[in-house]
Amino acid sequence: MTILNNLRRSLLRRMRNAPIEALDPRIPHSVVIPVATYSPWRADRDFQDVYASIKGNTLVDIYRCHDLWSLIGQLDKIPGDILEVGVWKGGTGCLMAARASRLTTSKKVFLCDTFSGVVKTSDKDTLYAGGEHADSTRHEVEALAARLRLDNIGILTGVFPEQTGAEIEARKFSFCHIDVDAYLSAKDVFDWILPRLALHGMVVFDDYGFFGCEGVTHLVNELSGAPDFHVFHNLNGHAVMLKIA
After folding, report:
1. Per-residue exposure over 56-77, b if at least 16 CB sit within 10 Å of its own CB, e if not
2. Structural domains counted in the chain
3. What is the reported pTM?
C-alpha cells in the first residue's frame, strides 16, 4: 500500500501544472490539480440528496455544483431573485432553486435558455461555432422541477436578454449564474444584470478558465479591473464576481 501511495503521489506531481497547448496564446492552460483535499460536499446530506436527482441533467461537475449550492446559501440577507442564463437540461437551475427554497426569505429562480443551443458566437470564441448543446427541452427542465417539487421556478424560452429580458426587467437580483459558453452572449447577460444586481450580490461565470471557452475567460479578465466588483478565480472553473459598490 505504501508503494502504491508513493506511485500515486509521484504521478500527481508529474501531472500537476503540466502545460496544455493553448487555443489562444493569451489564455494559457495546464493540468490543474489542487493540493487541498477538504471535500465539504461529502458531508452535506441535503446537497447530496438534491445532487443525486439533478446530476443527470447537468454537465457541471460536483465541485461547481456544490459551489453554487454554498453561494446561494449565503444570500438570505441579500435582496433579490436568482437568474440563470444557459440552463441546458435544468440541473444547476433546479439545484439552486432547491437551495433557495431552504432560505428564510422568498426568492424566485428564473431559468433562461434558447433550448436550441449556443448563440452569439464570434471571433473571440475558439471552439464554439453556435448551436452546440441543443439536445435539451423546456419539458426536461419542467419535469426535473416537478420531481423535486419546486414551485419557485420561472422558465423563459428565447435569446436572453433580447427576447425574454423584458419579462423580468423590473425585478432585482441577488445572484446570476452565466453558463452560455460564448463571449458576446456572456457580455450581454452581464450588461443586463449589472444595474439590477443588489449590493453584495454575486455573478458566477461557469465557463471561466475552461479549454474551449476562451471567449468567456477574456470577458472576465476584461471585467476584473472594474471598481464595482471583487473577482475571485476558483480553480474549479468558476469566476465569482462580488458587487461591492
Report:
1. ebbebebebbbbbbebbeebee
2. 1
3. 0.95
DSSP 64-105: HHHHHHHHHHT-TTS-SEEEEE--TTSHHHHHHHHHHTTSSS
The answer to whether residue 23 is domain-embedded is no
Whether residue 10 lies inside any domain: the answer is no
Helix pair angle (138-147, 45-54), 10° resolution: 140
Give the rounded distance of the alpha carbon of 87 from its chain centre. Answer: 9
Q: Kindly state the cell numbers that stand for 81.
A: 431573485
Beta-bridge partners for 157: 113
> What amino acid is encoded at 5 in this protein?
N
Q: What is the full per-residue pLDDT of the chain (245 aa) written as tens digits?
A: 676 677 667 777 888 999 999 999 999 999 999 888 999 999 999 999 999 999 999 999 999 999 999 999 999 999 999 999 999 999 999 999 999 999 999 999 999 999 999 999 999 999 999 999 999 999 999 999 999 999 999 999 999 999 999 999 999 999 999 999 999 999 999 999 999 999 999 999 999 989 999 999 999 999 998 899 999 999 999 999 999 99
Give the Cα separation of 21 and 19 in Å (integer).
7
The count of C-alpha atoms lying within 13 angstroms of the C-alpha of 134, restricted to the half-sphere facing its C-beta, is: 9
Q: Are 31 and 17 in contact, with CB atoms under 8 Å apart?
A: yes
* SS3 state of residue 156: strand
Q: Is 11 part of a structural domain of the chain?
A: no
Q: Is residue 18 part of a domain?
A: no
CATH number, domain at 99? 3.40.50.150
Containing domain of residue 91, as a range? 61-243
